[in-house]
Structure formats: structure tokens, C-alpha cells
Amino acid sequence: MKLRPLLYAMGLMTLGLGLFMLPCVVADLEADRDEWRIFFLLSIASITLGGVMALSARVEKVPIRTHDAFVLTVLLWVVLVFVASGPFFIGFGMSFTDAVFESMSGLTTTGATIMTGIENYPPSLHLWRSLLHWIGGIGIIVTAIAILPSLRLGGMQLFHLESSDTSEKFLPRIGEIALQTTYVYLGLTVICAGLYRLTGMSGFVSITMAMSTVSTGGFAVTDASFAPYVEGHADIVAMIFMSICSMPFALMVIALHGKWKLVIKDPQPLVWCCFAIAGSVIMAMYIAYHQEVEVGPEGTLRMVAFNVISILSGTGFGTEDFNTWGPFPATIFILMMFLGGTAGSASCGLKTFRVHIAFKAMISYTKQMIRPNQISPVRYAGKRVEETTLQSIMIFVFLFLASFAVLTCGLAMTGLDPLTAISAAAATICNVGPGLGEIVGPAGTFQPLPDAAKWMCITAMLLGRLELISIFVILSPSFWRN
């Protein structure tokens, strides 16, 4: 294993996080808050440490082997989480466990929080939480586009843009793909912030909420999440951008280059929208029939659609305490946590393409059982899905569900009730944020959980964000023997 390139990459990322702390200094200076000193000192420390690591480990450009890519992908996220926890731990007196939890939740765009009385914290901390979302969102998008497919993780190779492919290639190098994806990501953030500003949000709130929305993160600047902004119709803006950012960002870049045939061929956006529309309509009809609502049919549909899109996209914003909607909506929300967004998006969960292919594979295997001599290949986006891809998808789904089951049992062992254990496990491994029940539901936080449960949730957030298999691979003894 080549250690110097790994140290060099970690140094650059640590330096980068230090630079991202500087806007937090400006935010507190503008608000005349003394907490700017915390971020200034931590920024200097991070820049210095990262700079020293990068300079001391700098080497000529060398190819990174697949073996090293696994380690680098996991190690970078772990290092970033611990560095990013500094302001929470050193500056605001949180315990080490709580600081790491909040940092992991931010960078993995989960949105689960241990903080209460959020309105009382300085602007610097609000901005830092949103910046963590924003950094993590673009980080996982670029990782999903440039790294995970080449590692053949859970069927992601379906979306790998091979450098030798000249027929469907829209950019010549992965670096340019990542750069133009970043431009799209930044542009969506700016547009979202501008529209939020038009709905009546202050300039600062519109920026922080836009970063949380586009990254499908879910951190808000109030304990009430998104509820204070519904009257200004900001929820409509949020629904639009949560939906857009649940789509593959590579498709957005392709669309900007006029390759609309490639965009239309990908069934993910249509399938995701069908899930969102069907879930919203069914749940709205259920609530209108079983509960008395004062907002009328249109208001009910709008209220339900916001929360459905928020959970399905993995954002985790809330306008209502959907714990009070009854057992059927709670069950639907759990299922939507698992469905998640699309491949190559900032979203979460099993991903639409895996669910779609698994369903098609089930139909194909059923046909073969009825007619053993019949050849019934699984096709996706007009192409035959190779057996190796089917195998990786099935392995991923199994590992995902097995990890969820183990995590649920582990959380229950810490004394949590079944609903809290199940929903906390689903909310963290699917990177959604709020769970169900009085403790971790939309009206609660993860603060009351014992430290052991919080560390399980921290692990679950990392597992879910990095597509599980990369973590399991580096934990394998054979990986290190080879």
C-alpha cells in the first residue's frame, strides 16, 4: 500500500476544511459574536496541519490501485469527520461522542442531530453545520461518479463512464466530469438560495437552508426544522430542489451538453417520481379520510408531499410531526427511507436503480421457474444486465438489510424501545435523519440516546453513505493479506 499518496490526500482535505471554517469567522464578526475566535484558531490549526501533511507526503503523480482506492475512500471520510468535529467539541463544549455524531451526520448529509435550542447558537455554528452538508453532498456525488463504479460496488458499475467509450462519453476525463458536476451543484445552491430569499427568508438563513436542501442534508437553523417557512411558500421551493437533487447529477451535466437521448434512456428519474407521487397521493387520501384537517384537500396534499419528498430524498426536513398521522403513514415512511434517491445523486438509501433491477430480476427468475428452458434476461435502460452486476446488487441489498437488522438489535440492547430502535437504525443507515417515535422522531433529537447507541448510529451513517461494501472489504482479513 502506498502511504504517501494517502497522507497527501488527507493533508489536502484537512487543509480544505480549515479554509471552509473562515466563512464562519466572517459570519460571527458580522453578527458581533465572540465565537469567531474559535473558528479562527481551529482554521489556522487545520490549515497548518493539513499543509504540513500535504507538503511532507507530496510525491509525483502515481496511479492509485483499486486496493488503495478502497482505503483512501474510507479513510478520507473518517479523517474529515474527526477534523470537522473540532468546533463542536472544542468550541461549544459538546462531549466527544456528541461532536463526532453531529459531524458525521453533517458530512454524510444524514441530518440527525443531538442539538436542542439551535436558535441560541451563533451564526458561525449554523453556517458550519450547513457547510458540512454542502461539502458532504458534493463529496458523495463525485465519489459516486468517479470512484465507486470503478470499485464495482453494489452495481454502481452500470453508471461508470469508461474513458475508452467514445459513443456516449460527454466529457473526456473524470476530472472534467467532477468539475462540471461541481458547477451544477454550485449553481443549484445559488438559485435555491435566491428563491428562498424571495419567499421572505433572511439572507443568512436562505444560504444555510439552500446548502442543506441541495445536499439533501436537513440541518435547519431552528428546532422546528422547516415549519417556520411554510407561510412564505418556501416549502414549495424546497420540494422542487429536494426532487432535483435526488436525480443523478451526471444526467444534469449531460443535459447541459445537449445529450438528451442519454437522459431519457435512464429510467431512474421517472421511477423516483412515481414513488414520490404515489406515496403522496395515497398518504394524503389516508389522512383526509382518517383525520380531521383544517387545511383542506390541497393543503393536505401539499403538507404530505413535502414530508414524503423530504424522507424519500433523504433530506429529513419536517413541517409536521408525522408521528401523529397514524401507523400506516409511519410504515410508508419507513419504506421510503429504504427506497432513497437515485445513483449519482446527493441522496441515500438502497437507490432507485437497485430496487428496480431487483424487481426485474425477481420477475425474470419467476418466469424461469415456470419455463426452465426459457431465456429471460434482465434488461435495464435498454441493455442487458450482466450476471456480475446482478450479483453485486443482490449482495449489496443483502448486506444493507443485514446491517439494518444487526443495528436494530444492537440499539434495542441499549434499552431503546422497538419503534425507536427500528426507526433510528433506518434513519441513520439510510442517511435520512429523523426517525419515528417521541425520542428520535421529527419533534425529538438523538440526544437522549446512550453513548453506545450514538456510536452505533455513527457507524451506520458511515456505512450507508459509503455504500457498505467498501467498509466490509477493508475489514476483511484477506484484503490486508493481499
Automatic annotation (TrEMBL):
InterPro entries membership: Cat_transpt, TrkH
Residue numbers binding K(+): 109-110, 217, 315, 431-432
Keyword Nucleus appears in the UniProt entry: no
TM region positions: 37-57, 69-94, 131-151, 177-198, 204-224, 236-257, 269-289, 330-350, 393-413, 452-475
GO molecular function, one term: potassium:chloride symporter activity
GO cellular component, one term: plasma membrane
Localization per Swiss-Prot or TrEMBL: Cell inner membrane; Cell membrane
Domain of life where this protein originates: Bacteria
Keywords: Cell inner membrane, Cell membrane, Ion transport, Membrane, Metal-binding, Potassium, Potassium transport, Transmembrane, Transmembrane helix, Transport
Membrane association type: Multi-pass membrane protein
Protein task: Low-affinity potassium transport system. Interacts with Trk system potassium uptake protein TrkA.
Family: Belongs to the TrkH potassium transport family.
Name of the protein this chain belongs to: Trk system potassium uptake protein
Naturally occurring in which organism (per UniProt): Hirschia baltica (strain ATCC 49814 / DSM 5838 / IFAM 1418)
